[in-house]
Amino acid sequence: MLEAQRVHGSLIKGGLHAHIFRCNLLLQLYVSSGFLQDAHRLLLSMPASNAVSWNTVLSGYVKSRSLSEALQFFRNMPEIDTHSRNSVISCFAVHGCCSEAIAHFSEMRRSCLSPDRFTYSTILTVCGFEVGRQIHGLVFKSGVDHDVFTAANLVRLYVDYDRLGDAYQVFVEVSIRDIVVWNALISGFSRNGRCDVSFNLFKKMLGEGMLPDAYTFASLLDVCAAQLATRKAVQLHALAIRFGISWDLFMSNCLLHFYSKCESVLDLVKVFSEMRERNVVSWSILMATLAQSGFENKSVELFHEMESSGIKPNSFIFVGVLGACARMAALDRGKQVHGHVLSFGMELDVITGSAIIDMYAKCGEMDSALKLFSDLNNKDIVPWNGMISGYAQCGMAEKALQLFEEMKQLGTVKPNEITFVALLSACSHGGLLQEGCRYFESMVSDHGIEPIAEHYACIVDLFGRAGLLKDAFDFVLSMPFDPDGVIWTALLGACRKHGNIRMARNVAGHALACKQNSSSYVLLSNMYYGSGRWTEGLEARLLMDRKGAKKMTGRSWINVRGRVHSFTASDNSHPQVQLVYEILENLSSQIVQVIS
Questions:
Q1: Does the record bear Repeat in its keywords (predicted)?
Q2: What pLDDT, on the 0 to 100 scale, is given for residue 387?
Q3: Over 60: is that where the pLDDT of 7 sits?
Q4: Element (H or E) spanning 433, and its range?
Q5: What are the residues whose beta carbons fall under 8 Å from the beta carbon of 513, sequence distance 6 or more?
Q6: 352 vs 319: CA distance, rounded Å
């Protein structure tokens, strides 16, 4: 600003303020520095101005993203040329005002102004298919069809409407193809799941001597992630290292995203540790993947490490780390993260607020969850579901149902599939048989929601807890789709609870036919053991081994003096494992004494 004012003063003192060329340079200096009002005042004070003067200030308003000011200035311009129209069309395009951009394009043609390559390139980003085809014809007639940016946007247009043949034809007709055009076509086929075609184009590009960039690799990694094509992705990673692109931040984040999708935690951690630069996206992918892979404690530790590195967390980071705290039931850690949210003034954000509510609910702190829920403005279905689910998990079925009825009375939010899973779960755990059946029926009749497997599993559990095993079995057989292993296993659990071995055999057969799931084998063998039928119990376990069904190792967490420790069954990794088991044995003896 000071430099612009100094130059301005020198022009006036030297009597050069009437020189259009020098004044235009000063206008450009004001605009590039962001001082639009000063540029506007200088323009109005100039003894003489030209189209360059006015277009310079107009481009400043467009770059500032101020649509209203740009339009007002445009309407007051003494002369409109192609550059002026392009600026306004670009401004509308940036703001997503498609119809207005097309209207100005039409007005431009009616006023006998010739659209140029910038006009066509911009208007193609906002038009639909039919208008786009018409503009394609105009592009061909005008002779700018060989412009790479126009060609790239034509390719994107056809790809967006699944006209891959037309997109390829545009690509073939471009005489000079740069990386922008190649990327547009490769990205288009990748987004449409055409993995083989995308890689063939990539090979063709390399064969023609065109070097790929980070966006080329990003498109190919996306289709690899969608199809879990790990081998091809590893080859891409090696090529990225060879071309010196692997260190690019965008490229590194794409690699993180791919390894996250493939649940390859070791590769993900390796890429992250080798990154020269990291941003909030990098940390978010790593923390979310670790939390989803059973390393919740490490995910929370990384949150503090990220803050120490100077990266400011966003909503996605907070949602991820709060979810990790919720899964570990680490209330103290969750409260600390809540404090960080408050320090950034994000508590009233619906996304983050919903995550905090869910954390308190899963930690059994329903009073804290309710207080935050009451303070949250513009609530969507997510916090409502969090509260209803929290009440269900805490055995407060009546409160879950009461909150649902309050939501219905307000009428501002409609329930979804997750809402009814929480409701039916509350009814099941609360022994509310009639209410559960009524809500299940109302899903379709009152809310138009088709039940999915989770809803059927809740009803099976509801009947099972009530001891109505035959009703549960008949209900499963009446389902409109084939029951999966989860539903049969839920019924098998009810059979075990009520000691109905005859039905358990039948149900177990269905459960084992669905999936090689260890839960069914374990439940069945435990039933046999519990009834003294040791041989049959052992046979069920041996069958599980022959089928290759592995029992997932259970994991537990304990919070000691603010630090969360995780452990598994028969875990011997702790340095004081002998002392741990001695204390556990002592506690077990005390529990037995209290019970007896």
A1: yes
A2: 94
A3: no
A4: helix 433-447
A5: none
A6: 6
Mean pLDDT of 13-32: 67
Q: Mind spelling out the 3-state secondary structure of 252-306?
A: HHHHHHHHHHCCCHHHHHHHHHHCCCCCHHHHHHHHHHHHHCCCHHHHHHHHHHH
The answer to whether 424 and 440 are in contact (CB under 8 A) is yes
Q: Closest Cα to residue 488, out of 522, 451, 513? A: 513
The burial of 105, by beta-carbon neighbours within 10 Å (0-12 exposed, 13-18 middle, 19 or more buried), is given as buried
**CA 47 – CA 44 distance, rounded (Å):** 8
Contact 465, 428 (CB under 8 A): yes
pLDDT (mean) for 442-456: 92
Query: Residue 479 — pLDDT band, cuts 50, 70, 90?
Result: confident
pLDDT grade for 525, boundaries at 50, 70 and 90: low
Strand partners, 559: 564
Range among 2-16, 227-241, 518-532, 555-569 rated most confident: 227-241
Q: How many angstroms separate the first and last alpha carbons of the chain?
A: 84
Tell me whether residue 20 is exposed, middle or buried, using C-beta atoms within 10 angstroms of its C-beta: 0 to 12, 13 to 18, 19 or more.
middle
Query: Which DSSP symbol is given to 468?
Result: -
CA pair distance 509, 506, nearest whole angstrom: 5
Contact 87, 62 (CB under 8 A): yes
DSSP structural state of residue 86 = H
The torsion angles phi and psi of 565, rounded to 5 degrees, stand at: -110, 135
pLDDT confidence bin for 577, thresholds 50/70/90: low
Q: Does residue 549 carry a pLDDT above 50? A: no
Question: DSSP letters of 179-234?
Answer: HHHHHHHHHHHHHTT-HHHHHHHHHHHHHTTPPP-HHHHHHHHHHHHHHT-HHHHH
Choose among 400, 349, 414, 397: nearest CA to 375.
349
